[in-house]
């Protein structure tokens, strides 16, 4: 029996995605970088972000199809039709990094789409935890950033600069004052270099709404060079709600302006996310002009459709690691630059849906994750069961990206 027409169509798309839509095999030099038009440092509401035809979700769709799992193939084809950030994590040589970025730019140019990229290679990243690694020193990191920037060329490109790079900087995980100053200098230097590329739209790390106090995070952004960038990003690899993040981002943005423009102001001065909303709004209304130029922000909505996870009371005596592969989460708001909010540039899927956060043990002896009864894949490892769970629990319901086909 042939599957019904909608399923056949979905499976055909799955095969096309997994085979690369004819794009993956085209030579990188086939499309020259296009000089950005006016407004290169902003995202228009109709911006179309790059969809990778060879993504892990597309490959999973083909795997499921070969296994005659039609429903699984359908879900993964739907997931693969949406744009997801491309991560650059320092595992390649500088020249290989330049070439990889240039190849991405060429594919995005042919599709007339804007790539979303992640630079993730700062020394001591992730406080040497699950995603430990990074360049060995500041000089090596600067050379890597330069290689990445050269690959960007003149094309419009979103650059998510170092997730956890500021919110989880050395000062917050036992590092020395010197290490903290090095980190701030590394981030600021990276902004300087990336901003030499006319189309680069750079965002700095601002954690999320349940992490650093507004004032603390605002000062970190200032010290990291946010004045030279487009703004900051929120919620990478986390699960906070859009509403909480939008409010937090707005407060951080206002606090940044206040600290930069008020002599003697300190981080503790700013109204924060724990104030009653009306009181905080009134505080900023008195101190930040209505026409003030504020930093913008983007939100990672790749896994926050169901919001954060709360374990059953008393289930864990140690750290339940609510940030680490929490169960029954879902895809969130679809990637779009049409947010309807002045400071919110875009909802993006920055963390790759279906990639593990690490091998979580939730304070137990392990090695198994008690929420799943098995050992989680390593950080960044592809986890088909998690990808399907995110698709099943998506809010809003997962559908195909109707803007996938190239526009002329």
Description:
There is one protein chain. The chain has 408 residues and is α/β, with parallel strands linked by helices. The protein has helices at residues 5-18, 56-66, 70-80, 94-111, 138-152, 177-194, 214-223, 242-261, 277-287, 384-392, and strands spanning 86-88, 116-119, 157-161, 200-205, 231-234, 296-300, 344-348. A 7-stranded parallel β-sheet has the order 1-2-3-4-5-6-7, covered by helices on one side.
Main β-sheet: number of strands, strand sense, barrel status?
7 strands, parallel
Structural class based on helices, strands and sheet pairing: alpha/beta
What is the helix/strand order? HHHEHEHEHEHEHHEEH
Rounded to the nearest angstrom, the distance between the terminal CA atoms is: 38 Å
Number of strands: 7
Strand order of the largest sheet: 1-2-3-4-5-6-7
Give a summary of the structure in a few sentences.
Helix content is 34%, strand content 8%. With 408 residues, it is α/β, with parallel strands linked by helices.
Protein traits:
408 residues, alpha/beta, 7-stranded parallel beta sheet, 7 strands, 34% helix, disordered N terminus, Beta_cellobiohydrolase_sf, Glucanase
